[in-house]
């Protein structure tokens, strides 16, 4: 039977929190990208850090602001120049006091150009009145085209320069974020889901980019346009301006109410979308299991529950997001109609000119656009600042502890000592208790025990993925903290249970173990790991490109390449953490001799569930609840007939 809707959502909507990309949509015309960003916790600090990245482009930003002001002003001036044009066509004579100084200046500018053109064009007309109107309108059109063309050029430059600024700033943010990830300790990645970290590079950086590219400029342009429009409206007629201003609270209140509902439903939509995406991801990756146990019908039933829920929430989100534009637009039309009606009354009663009414109606029509645009863009700004906070939170994470001033790069031979080591990943939960052991150069030390006994933790401490609280680890008589961390890890090769292959050729993946290795050394390492034969059967041999973490290889083949990578390394210490767990018994026998050659001159630490792989170890440590309860060679432990004997003879199983 299918699970209920709430339980399904709770289980699967984590895909959104861990980096689900979401879908297009949002309040207002055209929608916004759904990021689930919310509001920033410390807006002032987030803005300050954002401005730090823009500060490197001060000249560019200044040029953008100049172009922005210029393009907005040219648009306003172009509209205002209709004032004298309409009056001249309507043959309405006005005084400077009636029309205003700006209209007179515009008329004088057109008249100056007209006087220049008049002698050339007037002979074409028999009627002086017709010639005068034609030349005046022709001149006005040329000037208007020139004004708007200048505005277009300014807008083009503004967008082009701002893209340079935004992409440069985003590149630096991504670069600093990626560089910080390389410096973070393993603890961070163990405690933060991969999807959550990836979402910082995708969702959060995208919202910052949207703010840089459009939202920030839209708000600045909206403010300039709003103030400029208001100034020109006041200049044209103060009384009609007051009528238009009355509608400002209506615009703001209406926009805020619709936006509030829109944000609520878009948040619900994103949660439902995350549940759908998470369920799809799990079912696609688990298709074999679903088919083996005949769960297709139950999966369809559960998916339909999630899909129907998403459909309902999408309907409400898109509805409220879609009505923002029409409602605000029609409210603006009401304001426009009322303004035009009152303007007509003023034309009859107080000599208000047709040109003035035309210009004012133009401004009244576009007056609501900046308010609507600003209210919509503020949501994106808040989401971007919240995303920036999450990006900066990663950047502010504490990096790995710096090397000691006296840290050295003394050549390492491979003598390892654990002296009374106690460790816990969290303070109140101890994983290892008073662990003491030693391994001489070239020895093979094996760890066996149940899951959670602390076997892998031992190797994590050896590589300084974590630092211990109590005790000490020595390599060649020096505490590992006295070695430079990078140098220490160069001297420890690891083959982990979870293999990871990078996009690239087989040769490049093996060479990851030592960048300066020759092709011959790469192939020799592959032969040591018994990987050479299957590599040569691939389509392009060592030059076969691996993608999707080596999806075109079997799990065993992927592990063999991983082993070859370690074989190529010249590190004197080798860690094998369930290295052959994904290799079948036959393949395991093939690589045993190669592994023996690999381990012959290296100090090797082996973690294995297959006890047959540790029989030839110099010492076997049996761990239980973080303590070494038995130690010795294979024969010695069998003679004791303790825990190892029970495990080896099958009287007890590893869990």
What would you say this structure looks like, in words?
Among the domains are: 5-18 and 40-395, ABC transporter transmembrane region fold (Up-down Bundle); 503-570, no CATH class. It has 24 helices and twelve strands. The protein has helices spanning 5-12, 14-17, 43-54, 58-80, 82-89, 96-99, 101-121, 128-183, 186-191, 194-236, 238-245, 248-285, 287-292, 296-350, 354-395, 455-462, 485-490, 506-511, 519-528, 532-536, 555-568, 585-599, 634-640, 643-649, and strands at 416-423, 432-439, 444-449, 470-475, 478-479, 492-495, 504-505, 545-546, 573-577, 603-607, 619-624, 627-632. The chain has a six-stranded mixed sheet, with helices on both faces. Strands 2-1-4-5 form a four-stranded antiparallel sheet, covered by helices on one side. A two-stranded antiparallel sheet has the order 7-8. Helix 4 (58-80) runs parallel beside helix 10 and helix 14 (296-350) packs antiparallel against helix 15 (354-395).
């Amino acid at each position: 039977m299918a699970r209920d809707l709430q339980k399904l959502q709770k289980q699967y909507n984590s895909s959104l929190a861990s980096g689900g990309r979401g879908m297009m949509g949002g309040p207002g015309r055209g929608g916004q990208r759904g990021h689930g960003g919310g509001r920033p916790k410390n807006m002032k600090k987030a803005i300050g850090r954002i401005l730090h990245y823009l500060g490197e482009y001060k000249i560019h930003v200044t040029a953008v602001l100049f172009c922005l002001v210029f393009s907005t002003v040219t648009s306003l001036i172009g509209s205002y120049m209709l004032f004298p044009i309409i009056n001249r066509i309507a043959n309405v004579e006005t005084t400077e006091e009636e029309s205003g100084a700006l209209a007179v200046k515009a008329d004088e500018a057109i008249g100056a150009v007209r006087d220049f053109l008049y002698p050339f064009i007037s002979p074409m007309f028999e009627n002086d009145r017709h010639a005068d109107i034609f030349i005046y309108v022709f001149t006005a059109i040329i000037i208007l085209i020139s004004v708007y063309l200048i505005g277009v050029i300014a807008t083009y430059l503004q967008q082009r320069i701002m893209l340079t600024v935004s992409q440069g700033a985003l590149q630096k943010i991504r670069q600093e974020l990626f560089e910080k990830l390389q410096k973070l300790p393993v603890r961070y990645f163990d405690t933060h889901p991969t999807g959550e970290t990836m979402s910082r590079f995708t969702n959060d950086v995208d919202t910052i980019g949207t703010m840089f590219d459009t939202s920030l400029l839209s708000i600045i342009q909206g403010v300039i346009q709003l103030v400029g429009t208001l100034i020109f409206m006041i200049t044209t007629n103060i009384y009609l301006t007051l009528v238009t201003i009355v509608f400002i609270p209506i615009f703001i209140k209406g926009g805020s109410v619709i936006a509030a509902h829109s944000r609520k439903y878009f948040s619900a939509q994103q949660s439902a979308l995350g549940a759908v995406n998470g369920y799809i991801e799990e079912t696609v990756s688990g298709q074999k299991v679903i088919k083996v146990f005949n769960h297709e019908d139950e999966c369809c039933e559960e998916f339909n529950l999630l899909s129907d829920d998403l459909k309902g929430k999408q309907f409400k989100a898109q509805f409220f997001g879609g009505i923002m534009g029409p409602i605000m637009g029609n409210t603006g039309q009401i304001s426009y109609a009322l303004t035009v009606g009152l303007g007509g009354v003023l034309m009859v009663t107080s000599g208000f000119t047709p040109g003035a009414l035309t210009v004012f109606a133009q401004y009244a029509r576009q007056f609501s656009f900046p308010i609507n645009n600003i209210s919509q863009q503020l949501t994106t700004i808040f989401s971007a600042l919240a995303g920036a906070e999450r990006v900066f939170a990663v950047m502010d994470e504490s990096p790995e502890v710096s090397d000691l001033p006296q840290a050295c790069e003394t050549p390492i031979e491979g003598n390892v000592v654990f002296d009374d080591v106690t460790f816990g990943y969290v303070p109140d939960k101890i994983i290892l208790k008073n662990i003491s052991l030693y391994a001489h150069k070239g020895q093979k030390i094996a760890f066996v025990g149940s899951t959670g006994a602390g076997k892998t933790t031992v190797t994590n401490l050896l590589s300084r993925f974590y630092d211990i609280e109590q005790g000490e680890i020595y390599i060649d008589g020096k505490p590992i903290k006295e070695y430079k961390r990078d140098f220490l890890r160069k001297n420890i090769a690891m083959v982990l249970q979870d293999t990871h292959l990078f996009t690239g050729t087989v040769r490049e993946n093996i060479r990851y173990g030592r960048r300066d290795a020759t092709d011959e050394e790469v192939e020799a390492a592959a032969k040591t790991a018994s990987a050479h034969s299957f590599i040569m059967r691939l389509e392009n041999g060592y030059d076969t490109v691996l993608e999707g973490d080596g999806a075109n290889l079997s799990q065993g083949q992927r592990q063999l390449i991983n082993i070859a990578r370690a074989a190529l390394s010249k590190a004197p210490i080798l860690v094998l953490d369930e290295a052959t767990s994904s290799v079948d018994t036959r393949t395991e026998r093939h690589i045993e001799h190669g592994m023996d050659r690999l381990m012959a001159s290296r100090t090797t630490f082996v973690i294995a569930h297959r006890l047959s792989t540790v029989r030839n170890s110099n010492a076997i440590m049996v761990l239980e609840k973080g303590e070494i309860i038995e130690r010795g060679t294979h024969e010695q432990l069998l003679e004791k007939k303790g825990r190892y004997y029970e495990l080896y003879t099958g009287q007890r199983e590893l869990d």
